Amino acid sequence: MIDPSPLLRCEHLTVRRGRREVIRDVSAEFRAGEIVALLGPNGAGKSTLLDALAGALPAAGGRVERHGRVAIALQSPDLARRSVLSNVVLALAWWGVPRSERATRAREALRAIAAEHLAARPAATLSGGERRRVHLARAIAVRPDVLLLDEPFAGLDAEVRASLLEDALSALRSSARATLVVVHDRAEAWALADRLLIMLDGRLVASGPPRELLERPPSVEVARFLGFDGMLDDGREVVLTRPVHVVLDARGPLAGRVARAIPLEDGVRLELELDQGRLYTVASLPAPQPGEPVRVRLDGGVRFPAPHRAEAVERQFPAGNLGTP
Amino acid sequence: MSYLWEQLHGAIPLIAHGDPYVMGLLWVTVRVAIVSTAAALLVGLPIGLALGLGRFRGRRALQILANASLALPPVVVGIGVLLLLLPRGALGSLQIEFSLTAVYIVQAILALPYIVALTPAAIQGLPPGLLAQARALGAGPVQLSALALREARIGVLAGVIAALAATISEVGAVVIVGGNFQGHDETLASALLEQFNYTAHEPYASAIGLVLLALIVLLAGALTVIQQRTGGIQLRFRTV
Amino acid sequence: MRLIWDELGKALPLIFHGNPQLLAVIWFTLQVAGVATAAACVIGLPIGLALGLGRFRGRNVCRALANASLALPPVLVGVFLFVLFSPPAPLGFMHLIYTRRVVFIAQTILALPYVVALSAAAVQALPPGLLSQARLLGAGRLQLWALALREARIGVIAAVIAALGTSLSEVAAVTILGGNIYGYNQTLASATLYEVGGGYYADAVAIAIVLIAMILVLMGGLGVLQQQGNGIRMRFRSAA
After folding, report:
1. Domain that holds residue B222
2. Chain C contact for A93, CB < 8 A?
3. Could you give the count of Cα atoms lying within 13 Å of A321 in the half-sphere of its Cβ?
4. Tell me, what's the ipTM?
């Protein structure tokens, strides 16, 4: 199903903004038919990578190889003061689509993203979610070979985002195109992507199918970033866990104490203090109170040999700064 | 080019040796600019604050009026003031027609629109939440005005500089109400008009022109520095 | 107050009976304002767009210069052009001093800063994402300029109206270069100055009334446009 020759490839790409190296030695390939999500904390260099891949920023080192036209949809969905349809038509004019095809293609794109009902509305009257929808339609309408989307769901509340995500899922899927989406939220990445790239501090630190990365994160830093917030260190190896791996069990092998309990909608998030470290889990009600001793067993988690001291890891890779627990 | 050079050449000694006529003009110009702008500030700042902060009916209409007053032709203002000040006019008993006082008055009226129109514009350029939050926390009109002035000081300052530049450059209204009496109520700009009307090619004209240019460059430079500084802040803000 | 009513009483018949001298001045003024503004747009809009959109080195300096040129006193521009155009000067061969043509030239040069600086500012105030997105989707220079002009049209029209306004109100440069010659190359504003100088207050008032009527029409047009602009913004705000 996936075309063997990549539409876009970068090798050892290095990009500077001013004197600072924002992208360091990034190599990646994007093939027709796949949707790739790029995930990373604020300031990791995601938008810069997009600009460099699109050719809007020069590479300071390495190279970018493009087979076909690359379109980038910027993060801010600024539209011209005219109707929604004319905005999409205008984008097609910029792209160089013949006049006779523009209206039809614009309507098609609006339909694909479930925004056809907005076609006649003045763009200035749209809500935030509707603007994002039209912005996305504009990018889809030009039918680029490679589509780069910079946080297409930024700044939307959960409900609007979920509905846009659902419509984007079918609209972005195309066998002829490679799509790279910068996302801010892990949930968006799981929903959209065939492949996940993780960027930390200007470097690409992981690449693979989302499920696989989650099961076998290649390094401690990637694991921490993907929500492995619990950590036990027995001196020989480090065990990292997600809340789902930690199960309260009266006959479990590990003993600890509840340090904190934070109520959630359907249960309680518990912070557990053990001799070898700290674990987090979500327990259903009734849950143990802070101070109570508990026993747990681990139902998964990943192990790394332990040159890492726990405190050093905590300091270097603070967990859970992104997404929902 | 030698002709242009000659024009300049005659002017330099006049400026360098502080020719009393040119220096007198400079002194009158500076006095007129400062006094009339200060008077305009005194009257205009409260009005500008009310327009920028007030929430009364008709505020928008008044603001449009204030903006429109920026386009008032100075000669029209001049003739209006003159008709009031002439012996048979409403204020004729004051006997200040064709005097420096009349110039102060007309220049203050011409400076007023800059203060009244640019102050609310500067206040409305503030982040909308700021003043609303202050109101919600119970700030009174005086506290609100102080906050607005402090936050919008760059815009207000730009208005003041624009008013100063306008009074320095003004010719038509000054000639009409002042009568342009040499050494008495002539400003640099109005004297320049006179030099060219009757006795062109005097080295005095070039000297006066250079002094006037220096004043304006000083003001425009100050404004540019201020705007660049705010521009810098915006740029830094944007990249964050 | 009697004087004002007396003069108005004498002025209104001049206007309503279509005094041919007055009509000639009105016609010349309209020609000057129209032609000078049009010429300033033809020259200034491309410069303003390039300044607002361009990403060349030194564009900040150029923008600052354009803004500063707004503060240039017309009387100085007049003096400079007079020196440049006077018979012994480099451009003396064109024989422009004290002609009708020189009035058009002077007003074009004075209108230029308004068109350049204000259109550049209007274009710069557009949401940055819109223009970057157009560039990234492959828009060419002409497409970008068309987009910027269309989106910033309210600001650009305000620039044009400001240019029209100055060419209507300006007296100094026109008087210096044209000589303010009765019945030949007077505009409404310079004619007002002339009539006051001669003590013909009724004629001056008549001319001033026509002048202010023209300015009011212009400002009314601008007000309507700004209302429309605000209307759009307000609708947007209430939707968001």
Report:
1. 2-239
2. yes
3. 15
4. 0.85
